[in-house]
Amino acid sequence: MGLANPDHDMTHDACLLVQAQQPERTWFCYEDHGYKHLPGMLAWRVAKLLKSPLWATPAIVPHVPDEERKRRAIWCYVSQIPPLERDHALTARMEGRVPEQFWRLAPPPRGWEALADFI
Fold first, then answer.
1. How confident is the model at residue 1 (pLDDT cuts 50, 70, 90)?
2. How far apart are CA 78 and CA 60, in angstroms?
3. Rounded to the nearest 5 degrees, what angle is found at the Cα of 28, between the Cα atoms of 23 and 33?
4. What span, in angstroms and rounded, lies between the C-alpha atoms of 36 and 42?
5. DSSP secondary structure string, 47-63?
6. Contact (Cβ atoms closer than 8 angstroms) between residue 76 and residue 37
7. Cβ pair 34, 74 in contact under 8 A
8. Which residues are CB-contacts of 86 (< 8 A; sequence separation ≥ 6)?
9. What is the Cα–Cα distance from 4 to 60, expressed in whole angstroms?
């Protein structure tokens, strides 16, 4: 989703540029532990996408969750851990077992695009 980190936000924007050149492909965003819980960030990204030609819709993507492997991977980001731990209780949030979500990016259903005017 590209939340709260300038590098992640820039990557999100770059991917949208590629998506615009390859609209025939299926595109997804992913909300990641540590960032999806930052107050308002996920809602901001979804609202921003709803005002674009692409709408983010929760998607079912087959995968095998491995929480321990995910924790080990997250703790490799040594520069990110202190602020996420200090300001956003990363460990407590990860222990909450709130699943991460994939979001499909696609145009809204025909006739629904006007709903973006109400955001």
1. very high
2. 31
3. 155
4. 6
5. HHHHTSS-EEEEE----
6. no
7. yes
8. none
9. 24
Q: H helices of 1-119, where?
A: 6-21, 41-50, 67-74, 81-88, 90-95
Q: Are 33 and 94 in contact (CB under 8 A)?
A: yes
Sheet architecture: strand order including 101-106: 27-31, 101-106, 55-59
Asked if residue 32 has pLDDT above 90, the reply is: no
Task: Give the H/E segment covering residue 104.
Answer: strand 101-106
pLDDT tens for 50-104 read: 988 899 999 998 888 888 888 888 889 888 889 888 888 888 887 877 778 999 9
- Amino acid, res. 15: C
Residue 119 to residue 117: CA distance in whole angstroms: 6
